[in-house]
Amino acid sequence: MSVRLRKWKSKEGKVQEAWWVDVKFQHPDGRVERVRKASPVNTRRGAEQYERELRQALLNGAHTRGAPPPEVPTVKGFTERFLTYSSNHNKASTLAAKQQLLDSHLLPAFGNLRLDRVGQADIESFKARKRKEGLSPKTINNALTVLRTLFAVAVEQEVLQHAPRVKLLKAEKPEFDFLTFEEAERLIAAAEPSWRTMVLVGLHTGLRRGELIALQWDAADLVAGRLVVKRNVWRGHFGSPKGGRSREVPLNAVALDALKAHRHLRGPFVFCDDQGAFLKNDTCRNAILRASKRAGLRPIGWHTLRHSFASHLVMRGVPLKAVQELLGHASIEMTMRYAHLSPDVKKDAVRALEARPRGTYGAHGMS
């Protein structure tokens, strides 16, 4: 391909480089046209793609020598369009997280750069700077994921021809806290009567805090013994559960009996205040902290109950695929964090070698 890397020294003596394309094209009338231009994406792959596009434009008669290239906005200039796109395709909590990462990290670093001028060197410098600031790899990766999505939207909306590669940092799998079986019983016993059923249901269904708060009686089938998790709430915004899909969670006898005894006529919400209104996040947070303190446990949150639900299932030998479906995880990789808790996973793995394959030894000349 007719692409090459040009290098030169600036007035300050610094070595600079850019990828250029050099295309010769013969028109039907025999006229030969040569186009030499700098690639808008300063990488070999970007230049090769730009060369193909130039050849296609010449073939279609769409290339006009000297025509000014379309103006590419800065990252900051494109942000409003990106957030509009995100508001149409993301939950309110995801949109707020993107806005926070843009304001705190991405716009200060890339805001004044044109989209087509953000290169891998800029992205690597951003990573190094944030690590020096003490940010965790997970937080940096969250910001990089938003940046990568922003570039993808710019390409989809034909504002940008090519998106630079955004490589994430290697990050350790996050640790999670869960209660032992004995600690879970202590927590239930220590919870205030008005909160005990919510704590128990959390431990026996694995619902997220927002799903527990948004749970309504129309989603609780106390005859068939099941919950349909179809709502979530975040800062007063009601929507679908994380992942955008509802799921069914069977109720065991403990959770079913507790919900039957909890039945009230204060309104549609299963867990609510005295007036029937849905519970606020701070109210729920303080309640679980009080319960854990009364039980003599470390401070925990509602997500600890979800981790405990999954951990207890795996420890009792429930297949990870079933745990994935009960938790509503989009992929099995998210559920694999609990795999090490299975008491038989390693035993079953090595026992697979005990069975002698038929015909193998003779086929390899072994006795």
UniProtKB/TrEMBL annotation:
The Integrase SAM-like N-terminal domain, residue ranges: 74-126
Keyword terms: DNA integration, DNA recombination, DNA-binding
UniProt keyword Transcription regulation, yes or no: no
Disulfide bond listed as a keyword: no
Domain Tyr recombinase, chain residue ranges per copy: 178-342
Pfam families: Phage_int_SAM_3, Phage_integrase
Top-rank taxon: Bacteria
PANTHER family according to UniProt: PHAGE INTEGRASE-RELATED (PTHR30349), PROPHAGE INTEGRASE INTD-RELATED (PTHR30349:SF64)
Family of the protein in this entry: Belongs to the 'phage' integrase family.
Stated name of the protein: Site-specific integrase
